[in-house]
Structures are given as C-alpha cells and as structure tokens.
Amino acid sequence: MSWALPLPVVIPLIAAAVCTAGDHVLPRRLGDAIGVVGAAGAFAFSLVILLASEKQTQLTWFGGWKPRHHHVAIGVAFAADPLGAGVATLATGLVLASVLYSWSFLRDAARAYDTLMLLFGGAMAGFALTGDIFNMFVWFELMGVAAYALAGFQVAEVGPLQGAINFAVSNTVGAYMILMGIALLYARTGALNLAQIGHALSGHRPDGLVIVALTLLVCGFLIKAAIAPFHLWLADAHAVAPAPVCLLFSGVMVVIGLLGVTRCYWTVFDASLAAQAHDVRAVLVALGIFTALLGAVMAFLQRHLKRLLAYSTISHMGIALVGIALLDEKSLGGASDLLLAHGLLKGSLFLCCGILLVRYDGIDELQLHGKGRSLPVLGIMFGLGALGLTGLPYVGSYLGHAQIDEGATANGIDWVQPLLMIAAGVSSAAIFRAGARVFLGWGPREDPLLSAEPSESPPERTASMPALFAVTAALLVLGLVVSVAPGLGQRVEQAAGRARDRIAYVDRVLRGRELPAPPRPPVAVESTATDSVLYGIGATAIAFGLALVGLFRRRLPEIVRTALRFTLGPPLAALRLAHSGIVGDYVAWITVGTAVVGGVWALLLR
Amino acid sequence: MSFLPYAVAAWVCIVGLYGIVTSRHLIHLALCLTVMQSSTYLLLLAIGYVKHGGPPIYKGVKLGTTSVDPVVQALTLTDIVVSVTVIALILALALDVHKQAGTVDPDEIREMSG
Amino acid sequence: MILATLVPLQGVALGLVALAAPAVVLSRDPLKMIVVNGLYGLSLVLLFVIYGAPDVGLSMLVVGTVAYPLVVLVAIARVRAREGGKDGEE
Amino acid sequence: MTRRVRIGFFLPALAGFAALLVWAYTGIPSFGDYQGPYGFVINRISTPLRHMDNAVNSTTYDIRGIDTMGEEFILFAAVIGVVLLLRDEEGRSEDVEDDTGSDVIRIFGTLAIGAAVLVGLWLVSFGFVTPGGGFQGGVAIASGALLLYLVAGYREWSAFGDETKLDPIKGIGGGGYVVIGLAALVSGMPFLHNFFSGGVTGSVWSGGSAGFVNWSAGIEVAAALVILFSEFLEKYIVPIAKSR
Predict the structure, then answer these.
(1) CB contacts, 8 Å: D85 with chain C
(2) Number of structural domains chain D divides into
(3) In chain A, what are the helix, strand and coil shares in percent, each to the nearest 5?
(4) Which of A498, D8, D37, D60 sits most deeply, having the most CB atoms within 10 A of its CB?
C-alpha cells in the first residue's frame, strides 16, 4: 500500500492545477466536478492508507532516496501511522463535505474557491503523513497561505479583511517560530527526518538548545491550535470566513496544530525529555485548562453565531490539549476521539449557520430571535449537535471526554476532571442558549451582555436547500455515533499507543523493519467508568441550566443579579478588553506566552 | 567571531518582532514580518557554514573539496519563496482594508473586538 | 577560491545586516522604508555570498530588487493616491 | 488596550524571548563547525549519483523535491489568493493611455527585456551546474515581462498579463511537477523518482527528470509572478488613468 502514500496530497494538488489551467476553457460544471472528484479521491486513498496503517506503519521515500550509510536519512519520507493517517482522513473527508456543500452554497464564487479548498486539503494531508520536520513546515505554510486567502474571501467588508490579516500575521509569526525550532534541531543533529532527530537526541540530557527548540515548536503549533494566549486570531478568522470554510478551520485546521505538538513530542523530544515528562505535562495541562475555561466563557458572551462556535472550538482545543498533555495512551486516544467527534459535530453546526445565513440573511443570535421556528428540522439538528459536544453519556464527544478523564485519574490527577466538565458545560450552554433563542424564540430580544459584531452579507444566490441539509445531516449523524461505534475507542487507543512508540517508529523509518501486526482490538462499545458518566451528566446539567440563566436572567431575584454583576462584571470586561481585535496585541500576547512557557520550562527541565 | 553570526540572527528576529507589535502601518508591518523571517535565513545559513568551505557547487572544483552544507541553502530557498507569497497576500489584504476602512493603522480598525 | 578571500569581510557584512535591520523597522515613512529595505536586502545578499551560498544570494537578489519593491511600491502608491483623493474632496 | 499598555507588557516579554534565543543559540556548534551528517552526505553523493554539479539544486529538485513541489504550490495558492482579494476593484480598463514617449527608453528597455529573459532562461537551464534554477530564473523572466510595462505602456502589458492566457501556463507548470512525479509512481517507482539520472555532468542535461521538474518550476514561477505583478500594477494604474 506504500505506493499510495503520496496520493492524498497529490490528487488534490493536481486537481487544483487542472482547475486553474482549465478555468477559462472547461465548462463550469466540469470544473466543479473535477474539484469534487479530487476531494473524493484524496478521501478514498486516505481511508485505504488508514486501514493499511493499522497493520503496519506505511512508509515511502520520495525519489527512492532510502536511508543508507549507517541509516542516515537523505530523502524525505511519508510515514503513515494510524494517528496521522486518521487526521489525513478527517481532513480530506471534511474537505469533501465542504466542497459538496459549497457547490450549492457559493456556486457563483470564483473557481478559485474550489482550488484553494483542494490545496488546503492536500496540505493538511501532507502535514499529517510526513515523517520529515521541514516537510511539515512546507505543508504547514501551504495550508496557511490557502487559509488566509479563504478567510479574506469577502473583500467588500472591513471585518473579514481585518480577521484575515490578524489570522495571517499571527500564524506567520508562528510559522517562523517553528522554523527557528527546526533550525535549532538541525544544528544539533544534522537531520531533518523526525525519527533520525529523535534517535540523535536520545540519551542526551536536555540543554538550552533542546528546551528552546521544544518551546518554539510547541508554541508555534499552539498558535495554529488556538491555545490561549495564542488563540486570539481564531475567532476573528472564523467570524469572517464562509460557513464551509469554518467547517475546515474548526474541524481540522486547529487539529493539525495539536497533531504537530503530538508528533514532535513523541518522535523527537521524548528521546531527551522522557525523565522530565512530568514538567512538560504540568505546563501543557495548565495551558489546556486555561484555554478550555477561557474559550467557554468567551463563547457565552457572543451573539454572532459563528464567533460563538469559534470560541467553543477554542474551549474544546483546550480540553483536547489536556488529553495530549497527560502523555499517556488512554488520554491521547481520548483527545483523538474528542477531536474526531468535535470536527464532525462542530462542522455540522457551522453548516447549520450557513443555512441560517442563506435563509434569513443573518447569523446574529438576537436578530434571528424566533425566526428559526419555521425551520424545525434545522433546530433539531442544531440542538443535537450541541448535545453531542456537551458529553452526555454515550453521545457524540462523550467517549473522548471520558477517556481523558480516566487518563487523568490514572495519572493521579483528580482536579482536572471537574474543570473540564465545567468548560464543556459552559461552552455548550452558549450554543444551547443561542439555539433556544433562534429556534424557539425564548428569552428577550436584547441582551447587553453580548458583544456587538459586524454583520455578514449572505451569499449572492439561491442555494439548493436539500443539498445543504444532506451534507449537514451526514456530518451530524457521523459525529453523534462516535461514542457508540463498536471498536472505535479501542482502535483509537491502539493508534495512540503506536504514535507514542518512538523506538518502533525509528526501527520502521530508519531501518525499514517490519513489525508484527498488532492484535485486532475487540469490536465492542468501549465501556467507561462511573465517574465519567457522572461528569457527562454534570456537564449536560450545567449546559442546560446555564443556557436557561442566559435566556431568563431577568427573572432571577434582583439581589442575585446585582451580586452577579459586581462579581462577574469586571473580569468579563477585562476579558473583552484583551480580545481587542488589534494585530499588534495578538503578536504581543504570542511573545508573552512563548516567553512564559519557555521560561517555566527553562527552570523546570534543566 | 564564533557566536557573532548567531547573535545577529537573534537580534534581527527581536527587531522584526518589535516592529510587528509597534507598527502603525500595515505595509510597514508586512516588511517587519520579512525582517523577522530574514533572521531564519541568517540562522540556517550560519548553521551550515563550514570554515574555509566554498559553495557546494562542483563546477571546475575537485570533488571532496571542503564545502558548506547545501541542505540549509535548499531550506532557505524555500523560505524565501514563502516570504514573497506571504508579503504579497498581506499587502493585498492591506490594500483592501485601506479601501474599505480608509486607514492602514491596525490600531484604528476595531471591527473585531470582544 | 575567490570566495575565500571574502571571509574577513564576514564581520563587516554581519555588521551591515545588524544595523540595516533596525533601520528598516524604525523608518516609519513608507517610501524611505522601501529604500532602506532594498539596502537591507543587498546586505543580506552580500552576506549570503560570503557564507558560500550564491544560490540563496541570487534568490534574495531577484526577490529584493524586483518582487518586494514593486509590490510594496504599488501598495504605497495606491494608499497615497486614495488619501490624496480624499483630501481633495474634503 | 492602548498602545502604551501593549508596549509596556510586550517589552519585558521580548527581553525574555531574546534571552531564550541567546540561550538556545549558544548550544549550536560554534560558527564554521557544521557537524553534518546530512549536508556532507549530499555533497559526497550529488555528483557521482546524479551528475549534478550544484548540490543545492540536487537537494532542491531531486533529493528533497517534494519540499519544492509544496513550495511551488504555496506560490500557486498565494497568487490565486491575491487575484481573489484584488478582484474587480475598479475593473479592467482597455483604453488606458499610458505609453512611454521616449525612444531611448524604448530601445534600452527592449534590450533589457531580451537580456532579462535570456538571463532567466540561462539560470533555469544551467541550474544543476551553476548557481540558479527554476525559481531564480522564473523571477528573472517575470521581471523581463515587467519591463515590458515600462517600455510599451499599460496597454501592451495588460494584453500580456492577461490571466486567461497565464492561468493555463501556471496550471501546467504546477501540474507538470506533479505529473512528472506521478509518472514515476505509475511505472512502479517511488513518487518523484528521478528518471534518466545518468545525464552528462556539467551540461544542460545533467539533471535527469529533475531537470523537467526544474523547468516546470521555472514556468510556474514566471507565470505566477507575472500574474502577481499585473494584479498589483492594475491596482495602481487603472484608477490613476481613470482620474485623468
């Protein structure tokens, strides 16, 4: 199967080239069809590679430049383990959904749109599959450039343009930090292949160079993953991008950032830092928790639906980072399950927003008050999507939440779980509140708590509603069943275990050694601990309760409201002030975050 | 002399970052990004330098002559292309911003706060 | 090799780069910025050639003399033209 | 947040960041002591195995050819993005009078165009022998095209910088790279495998199929940059001409 490894990247790229070359020659429909075929082909091959990689890490050396002379890697390899192949499958699958959806959503937009989507998808697949750290950077940049253009799609308004600039500048700074980290590792090891860098570092105590390289790479990737305080660009970029682009941004682009952290840690830094893993964990868990709570609170303050969902994405990225940061198999599997369910469900919620925009010319919670009553099906889909994200036992993202909780317990940490429960509850409460206001007409039409936002002009033509609903519903159903898909949890945990096994990875990549296929995990719904069930129910209760408070705040007794205003008012105002929308502030926060993370690691790891 | 090239690379990076944060003009900000990026060229090429080494081009040079590392140069070439594209994109965005908002001072555009 | 004779110049080239970088960042007038940025680009070209990287130097040269100035100049000219037009109307 | 506050908390962080960088860079082998092995291996094998004198370009277009493929598509995506962002602002104008009057400029300009294009072609052709290659050559060719604007004025240029003609070229350049890679895959070899790698050292043909890769990169870069320049120039010229 190894020969197929480049195809998830190559097919969309060549489809993009054909689309551009034939832009003025080919009939419209044929061009669209090439886009869909390119996306579908990439998805199909990603799936095939995923299935093959579960038996054996798939490996190919570009140009046939296999390692020689004492196992020195000369060429660039794609090395697909199940985790990377899984992310590639998620990425190409969501690109396919997005292309199909925009086929009827943005039909009048330039062909450029499809082309950029394809390049975006190909780049994400390349990032997920590659085994070379500089090649990671190349795909990361291609992904970025395509994404900046997609974000600034609506050039006639200031908001989208500013969002796109904030996005482009923040992520470009992140990319330079990553490149500096790569240069440092190259200076130390003279290698760019991940396995070889890790191999060269193993057995050496970490020094300044290694610690700073870790800081630069991790912080650079965390910018893409929208982890606080590196997260500020994300809501801006989402607020302005068309719904099918948001699907990709929230569903998989941020996941790429977390995959970058995971991949670099387990193939490179684990070699040098294994003894001090505890301190690496402390910093990343703290960032994750902070992000989860901050994102949830900010989500609750939004009335612009896409911005609200974007902050909820930030919250979930925080939860997933906790899973990755716990550095064990169970939690990493949990983070993967969570991100899979989140990508599908959050994607379907964004597509719901797209339908609202087409139908009612707006996606402002207050302006849409009660209007959704004429679309009950959409309301039900919206509610189910929100429920799936909350972590109600055995629905949607529950499995991921549960595995992370259990991983934390196994690590002897027991204060993380309640905080994650609160974060999941609060961010879902925001979605429930918005849904109840739009689709049920509950609550008042005015709410001074919520931030004012620029409006978005609707797409310029009539859309085919059945097609939009079909894509949205497909993502929703797939997302909801993640927790009960038999065998999925076990297989993902196995994949997480493989991603953590640096020795086997080095053996496979540098020495080409074929390892015996791992035993097939049982095909059964993964059972979870009682604690996890309780946390899931707790999160759901918080979500519903807080949503009601948000809607019917005025019915609370006067004294409670005054108390709330005095205790919560100032911190919330400060939070709003920090999310200023000014790119200089964003880069300043990135610098602060990097300096603090690096400084703490410098003290702890040396 | 042995640390100077790296010190210059760090200095250029810091200078560029300072420019990005304090910029009052989007076009200026874009150029500051290229300054920050040029620090990665300086770092990479300094890492691959070999004392008394010539360029890694063997036209009319005996094979086995000491030469500097070609890999960092290939990486830098890619890096330069990336910088051109990012600049072009950000300037295009800046032009559109100026058209819509009438200003290129990032501090004056506050569509996205909260 | 001719380049070997340039090695003593490394310190000078590094000094030029170290001085030109802040000059770019601190020049707040856009047109001045382009000129200074061009000089910075040339100092980088010089340094790259001394580092034994003529390929990179050549790239930097074509980028620094054609691509950056053109794109940036047009951007600045555009912004100025609009601002000029606006002042005229007011 | 005001600028003052921002700079107030940024400067200490910047100092911390600088300290981190300095700490890390002191861990690098001292200047001139590159330890390898990657670069040394490539310097040793590039000419014997691939008949390429220029080890940088054998890295760029052969050994790490996949990076360069990604790089070409970064440029590709950026140009699409710029066209998308700058689309239809003031509309394309066919009747802009912006001709250059001076014969001297015309003569020297025409010579310069020829020179730039020749230099560009030379840079691409001999990329595996001397400094240069697809990217540098492509930019040189595009800058020759840019001179056309100075010499002949906007009308000629706009006929030349027409996207309907350049898009196919750009697509073929970018797609060609991938197709060459796929050709290897179809014939049972790894993606981007170098065919005919037994070329003659020191000649135009020294690159094998990496030579085709180099050429398609050159074509792609030239077309992409001409589009890029023409988009920006249009932003500049059309409104000015209309205001006259």
Answers:
(1) none
(2) 1
(3) 75, 0, 20
(4) D60
